Amino acid sequence: MRKVISEEYLDYIRAKPCTACGKRPVDPDHIKARGWESAKRVDVFALPMCREHHSERGQIGNERFEAKHHLNLWRCVAELMCEFFIERGENDLLKKP
Fold first, then answer.
1. In 29-48, which positions are buried (b, 16+ CB within 10 angstroms) versus exposed (e)?
2. Residue ranges in the chain modelled with pLDDT below 70
3. Which of 73, 88, 91, 95 is nearest to 18 (CA)?
């Protein structure tokens, strides 16, 4: 997978409430492990999560987190991406660097 790095998208995520509880502040939580290498970084796989839920998801994994909170994390990712692109009215993130 090609890396997708966008501080603008991460700022968009930071402005949203927590996906699990609606609280703020949030951090972008990359639901697909990206590692520390920027070559693996895919920012559009991030969800807004408060510290509590960011830690919980990391500890119990995506499947158990989804079951506990009645969420589909990939659907949430897709919805946020769509909202971002619609609000911007363009598709800069998908252009090759």
1. bbbeebeeeeeebbbbbbbb
2. 1-2, 33-40, 90-97
3. 73
- Cβ–Cβ < 8 Å for 14, 25: yes
For 11-36, write each residue's pLDDT tens digit: 999 999 999 999 999 999 998 866 65
Strands (E), 1-97: 27-30, 46-49
Closest of 40, 49, 55 to residue 21, by C-alpha? 49
Q: What is the value of pTM for the model shown?
A: 0.81
Q: CB of 30 within 8 A of CB of 46?
A: yes
Which tokens sit at 90? 């363009």
